[in-house]
Amino acid sequence: MTDTLARVGSGRFLTFTLNDEAYAVDIFHVLEILEYRRLTVVPMMPAFIRGVINLRGRAVPVIDLAIRFDRGSTTVRRRTTIIIVHLDDIGVDDDDGVAAGGQDIGILVDSVNKVVELAETDIEPPPSFGSGIRADYIGGMARRDGDFLILLDVSRVLSISEMVSLGDAARAGGHTEEVTELAEGH
Fold first, then answer.
1. CA-to-CA distance for 175 and 153, rounded, in angstroms?
2. Which residues pair with 85 in a beta bridge?
3. Does pTM surpass 0.90?
4. Orientation angle between helical segments 160-171 and 176-183, nearest 10 degrees
5. What is the pLDDT along the chain (186 residues), one digit of tens a residue?
């Protein structure tokens, strides 16, 4: 089993659609699913950070996956949903190098479908080309109902350090080549 598949593994996955494509994230990371609500726009953020929501007194950033995957932006409709995920290992305390407890992040998607159970035998390695998104964002491909589900590696898709780097590069004068290189993982 590859390192990528070892990160995803078998288990339960929340499925959702984005631009008519089927995706899934490990249910382990999902805290809750919210109907779309008005976002507070934060100035000088990268375009894929659509804003923040107030979640029980905490400001939670909301990422538009369509923009993150360079597929336009999500059009808010009746079924538009915000999936709140928690990532444990993305924050580091500068004083002692200990993890700072992680971060809650909202993911804006067209709609949430259902939770599915996937066995290791259902999951294939990510394709090296042709998926339309960066290969390191994909934890695997699962055969489901005669089609494929793209299993996202949320720790890579929602890497705070990478998103901050992209935002810094964009604010540093719109150096398109630098932003493109960061977005493509070069």
1. 28
2. 30, 105
3. no
4. 170
5. 344 444 456 799 999 999 989 999 999 999 999 999 999 999 988 899 999 999 999 999 999 999 988 889 999 999 999 999 998 754 444 444 434 578 899 999 999 999 999 998 889 888 776 556 777 888 899 987 788 899 999 888 887 666 666 555 555 544 444 434 444 444
Q: Are 75 and 84 in contact (CB under 8 A)?
A: no
Q: Which two tokens stand for residue 139?
A: 């934890």
Q: Which three-class secondary structure string do you get for the chain? A: CCHHHHHHCCEEEEEEEECCEEEEEEHHHEEEEEECCCCECCCCCCCCEEEEEEECCEEEEEEEHHHHCCCCCCCCCCCCEEEEEEECCCCECCCCCCECCCEEEEEEECEEEEEEEECHHHEECCCCCCCCCCHHHEEEEEEECCEEEEEECHHHHCCHHHHHHHHHHHHCCCCHHHHHHHHCCC
Fold of the domain spanning 3-156: OB fold (Dihydrolipoamide Acetyltransferase, E2P) (2.40.50)
Burial class, 96, CB count within 10 angstroms (exposed 0-12 / middle 13-18 / buried 19+)? exposed
